[in-house]
Give the backbone structure.
Amino acid sequence: MVRKRPLVVVTRKLPEVIETRMMELFDTRLNDTDEPMPRDALVAAMASADILVPTVTDRIDAELIGAAGEALKLIASFGTGTDHIDIGAARAKGITVTNTPGVLTEDTADMAMALILAASRRLVEGERLIRSGEWHGWAPVSMLGKRIHGKRLGIIGMGRIGSALARRARGFGLSVHYHNRRRAHPELEAELEATYWASLDQMLARMDILSINCPHTPATFHLLSARRLRLLQPHAVLVNTARGEVVDEATLIELLGSGRLAAAGLDVYEHEPAVPAKLLALDNVVLLPHMGSATVEGRIAMGEKVIINIKTFADGHRPPDRVLEAT
Ligand code: 8YV
């Protein structure tokens, strides 16, 4: 008997080599316009597909999963974060969920380091000054930023990306501190010469630079609450390449605007793609459009992972990147 090729619906445009390979392997429906799928289109896709390939821009909630067709057995997400998918609802319906971990670690850590440098040394402000035509030449006290070397970096979430950032940070002469639910393996701590802070509050109050590298889960929503953000020192710089929901964005803006926090570098926002006007009006923030993993190599590797997950599953095996419910 010839096995029927699974019907795979892809919600956004993916790198061409990935789309081509998917078309060869599966009965694939692509999104040529790359417009995010409206909810009714997602409902229709989930009613007919065997496998859905969503991204962070699709909100796959319990209601959508409840309305999915009987054929839908796998959600093979393109990306590492899975906070856009109700994993519990999927499991209850017998739908497997996979993601693409590991292949965007180095790119995202690069972006976190780039934001640390850009926000501390006012790179984008400097660029704006040049482009404004208002630069009248060098001056001893113009565009002064904050030195990186010798400062304390606090990493919130010492997983793959947090560790990769720590390795980079050491090259810049930063001392590495971290908070994580579980203390890292002693070997990793020794390699990174990293100091563990069981208390996030205590770490926040003592760092010069903070980087958020934990996933967004029910437990990390507003982990940087208004109270915790107020623990930061006024000279501190905050960088977020993880998820906007981890930070109380309104309080962050208030502190940056009133000088109670020096600067921020943000790649993610609490209500993406909305970026508050008050944030846009601040000079002491570097704002990027969620591009931490946006490299050609990274996006192809993510697509390859999606294909491996689908192929393994379609062949009747457990796909390598199954996602379990966050606790
Ligand atoms: C991806 C990300 O581009 O993988 C993640 O969790 O945040 C991004 O780097 C996006 O999620 C793709 O769906």
Remarks:
- The pocket of 2-keto-D-gluconic acid is lined by residues 55-56, 78-81, 104, 292-293 (CB under 6 Å).
- The first strand starts at residue 7 and ends at 10.
